[in-house]
Amino acid sequence: MAAPTARGGWLWTVLISALLFLVRSPPTANGFTSPISAVRGCTSGSGARTSTFPTRLSAKEDSSDDLISDFCKGTNEFWRNLVIEPVRNYVDVQPAESTVTATSDALTKLTSPPETPGIPRPVWLTILGSVPTGLVWYGYYKFSVEEELYQYELQQTGKVSGCGGYGTLFPFVYGFLIGFPMTLLQIPGGETLIQAAGAWILLGQINLYKRVNELLMEEDDVKAELGLTEPPLYEWWAVLPPPLDVVVGLRQVHFLSQFWRVKRGYAAEKDVIAEELFPFISMPQRFTLKQFFRRPRHWFWFTTNWKDFDFPFLKD
Fold first, then answer.
1. Cα–Cα distance measured from residue 224 to residue 229, given in angstroms and rounded to the nearest whole number
2. Cβ–Cβ < 8 Å for 38, 54
3. Which of 111, 114, 204, 309 lies 20 to 30 angstroms, CA to CA, from 22?
């Protein structure tokens, strides 16, 4: 994303303000472990939920949740109406196993419309779709997971905490498609539009990590199946420079896929990329930046026998 200019600097003020709004807990002593806590969400009348971590079900009858939900619903509907009907018809969320089942092949999973409960898309599948297409398919992945979470929340509670696939992806797409030619033609406002689009998609990504954490902590059977004792993602890692933002992004892909697998009752299948080649992706324990840099055994398949680095500045 381009560096802020005087014309677009106010957008970064908005972004920082929004991030501060999301923060619910102070940094810990080492300065690296502060998570962005959950914006309190919706209620549900079913399922055993004993977690002490923030979830979508933490607060009942919270007027701020109603405002967030109404905003997200309105945003999703507005951008949905700008999409041509044949595309809307194809990507409408379907009931689970309308297209994808436990035995479906990779191509079916890559081209399927979204379903709810969502389609398990492991890391290897996401990379298979994203790399050969120059990340074009990743845009479809982003749309699908946002729309699946949106419809899942809506069915469970009647409220939502995200803007869905339409409301998350299309402001970014339109902002870039309109802003980039404006910038090339030196039309005022083009760079600002691109910055606004970038800020929107970044906030959406932070919110996605928050929602995935909440879902994983809501039900004891999910936590037991996945070996989780705490939320696995630090949402604020989304604002870190590459490749550190990719670290949390890959973990989100893995754990959201695992969540949908458990909800569908599918048997676990080995993800070689997440479990062997890059072990940090599937670690159930959440790790800080210091821990990540200090423990090379979790980095790659060829560093699994390396000892921890004993540098004073990497100690907790």
1. 8
2. yes
3. 114
